[in-house]
Design a protein that fits this description.
alpha+beta, 14% strand, globular, two-stranded antiparallel sheet, three-stranded antiparallel sheet, 5 strands
Length: 186
């Protein structure tokens, strides 16, 4: 798993702007996957971020890089709580809910719609997507009920972050150096 793919797909999460990010990783063997995750997690350790495989199938892994403290906070939102309860998620902490998400990913042909909650998308927009409301705009997520101008600023901030991180990577910055430790987890 190259640092570049992690940075390209997860820069806003590495910068603690976004709760979580997903990307696909093709692996030759379970040992390859395990070693790649160890390498990435060694860069994230102590910085409040973590990488785990959510689903593995036919030599492809869906990798989730996330900020556990941010996820705990996000999942406490009343709208997020309501969505998770409706989708059969257990009460409790984020780890239990990630375990349920892994089950849902194995059982569903497509991504379960509530996955946006695990990526830091506004719960009202996740609900809007699930209820097939009219979309105001599209960026990292589809905006249904949240403030469109605020969402556009977040989209731009995430694009700018990714561009800056890729430039720094070309200048030789390591994944570890690019992963920040937020004040709240220090």
């Amino acid at each position: 798993m190259s640092d570049e793919i992690v940075i390209r797909c997860c820069a806003p999460t590495l910068a603690a702007i976004k709760t979580g990010s997903l990307f696909n990783f093709v692996f030759d063997s379970r040992e390859d996957l395990t070693q790649s995750l160890r390498n990435v997690n060694s860069c994230l350790t102590g910085k409040g971020a973590r990488a785990i495989p959510l689903r593995c199938r036919d030599g492809h892994a869906l990798i989730y890089i996330y900020r556990p403290k941010m996820l705990e906070r996000d999942l406490q939102d009343p709208v997020a709580q309501e969505i998770l309860a409706r989708c059969g998620y257990p009460a409790g902490g984020a780890e239990k809910r990630i375990a349920q998400l892994m089950i849902r990913l194995r059982e569903c042909a497509d991504f379960p719609h509530e996955i946006g909650l695990f990526l830091g998308y506004p719960p009202v927009d996740v609900r809007g997507f699930m209820e097939r409301k009219t979309c105001k705009c599209t960026g990292l997520w589809k905006v249904y009920e949240s403030d469109e101008a605020v969402a556009q600023r977040i989209f731009a901030r995430c694009r700018n972050c990714t561009d800056a991180y890729l430039r720094r990577r070309q200048q030789g910055w390591s994944l570890s150096r690019l992963t920040i430790r937020p004040r709240e987890s220090a």
